[in-house]
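// run 5 | inverse folding | seed 20
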């Protein structure tokens, strides 16, 4: 069985819950411009930021970003914080969770020392934010422009289809929609941008048909959970009806929430649905408090899952006694709920789940975007 037919089989078995993952890097220079590259294999949208698709051996999207830059441009960058996570839906391909990272500014000498893989990078240029907004394809343009316009202290930004989402006070105002120009005129700006478009490099690999390529890419899964507390600061946990996992472990206690139906809903919609299904409440998710990446077995042999998992943790706010009294649990899924002091929650949850919860609670008390976690612990 070929790689892409295996990928197609995985998609079928995923029942709409699987999505692609990717990571890119925003390289600023000393003049505030951003680095873009030419994709020799993409005639329709040849301008992009450096980066690429996640592989199962990557322990995190941060590692994906590092690997892609090493492969594409021939050097190891110094990554800064996560700039944004953008979840996009598309009728013609699976959804994508796209991560963008800031990197340290590059000097002209560092850029001149690039050793690009010509099958992956056919040229590069430094663009002002305005130039980049026009040259990049519309969805990527929205994603990059949102990161460039927002103060660093606001990140990581939560995006859906390239647009900031969340509570009104946390969402940067969108700018005007630029006219898409693609690669037009870039050869006049950069000595490293070819003047003529073309196909893949002569010694590059043959191109896969688009559908076959998408089918060949590995998938992840995602969950949306919500952190509710009472006035005393106790955390609301729910206990799942027991079910077997590899190794015989049963995750009894967890935060309310569950799997995102990746092919039909966005993370906030999933959080809203899960709270309604599990607690009987109709409420809007608050701030995104944390993003936790759980590697699969290819990156971590001790992992309980074959597939990597991305967990969104939203703020549910403070609940009162009347709201708690209205909880209606689905008996086929949950058997009880409990308000827990931090010490009790730590004892009931797995170490990674407690660390994830603690990071989300801490994020409530500071400005800015969500905490970036890997396996429940700060990424880095």
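// decoded
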């Amino acid at each position: 069985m070929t790689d892409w037919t295996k990928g197609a089989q995985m998609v079928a078995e995923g029942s709409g819950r699987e999505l692609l993952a990717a990571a890119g890097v925003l390289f600023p220079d000393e003049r505030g411009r951003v680095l873009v590259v030419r994709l020799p294999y993409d005639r329709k949208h040849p301008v992009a930021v450096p980066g690429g698709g996640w592989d199962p051996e990557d322990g995190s999207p941060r590692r994906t970003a590092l690997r892609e830059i090493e492969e594409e441009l021939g050097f190891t960058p110094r990554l800064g914080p996560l700039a944004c996570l953008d979840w996009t839906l598309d009728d013609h391909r699976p959804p994508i969770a796209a991560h963008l990272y800031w990197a340290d500014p590059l000097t002209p000498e560092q850029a001149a020392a690039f050793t690009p893989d010509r099958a992956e990078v056919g040229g590069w240029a430094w663009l002002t934010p305005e130039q980049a907004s026009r040259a990049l394809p519309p969805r990527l343009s929205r994603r990059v422009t949102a990161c460039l316009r927002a103060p660093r202290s606001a990140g990581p930004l939560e995006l859906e289809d390239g647009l900031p989402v969340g509570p009104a006070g946390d969402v940067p105002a969108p700018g005007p929609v630029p006219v898409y120009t693609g690669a037009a005129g870039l050869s006049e700006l950069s000595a490293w941008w070819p003047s003529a478009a073309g196909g893949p490099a002569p010694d590059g690999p043959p191109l896969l048909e688009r559908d076959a390529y998408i089918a060949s890419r590995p998938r992840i899964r995602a969950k949306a959970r919500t952190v509710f507390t009472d006035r005393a600061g106790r955390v609301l946990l729910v206990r799942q009806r027991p079910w077997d996992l590899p190794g015989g472990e049963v995750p009894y206690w967890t935060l309310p929430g569950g799997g995102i139906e990746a092919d039909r809903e966005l993370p906030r919609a999933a959080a809203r649905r899960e709270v309604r299904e599990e607690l009987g409440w109709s409420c809007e998710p608050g701030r995104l408090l944390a993003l936790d990446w759980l590697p699969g077995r290819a990156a971590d042999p001790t992992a309980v899952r074959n597939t990597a998992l991305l967990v969104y943790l939203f703020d549910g706010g403070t609940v009162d006694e009347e709201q708690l009294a209205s909880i209606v649990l689905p008996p086929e899924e949950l058997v009880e709920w409990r308000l827990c002091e931090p010490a009790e929650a730590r004892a009931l949850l797995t170490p990674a789940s407690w660390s994830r919860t603690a990071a989300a609670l801490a994020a409530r008390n500071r400005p800015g975007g969500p905490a970036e976690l890997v396996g429940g612990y700060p990424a880095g």
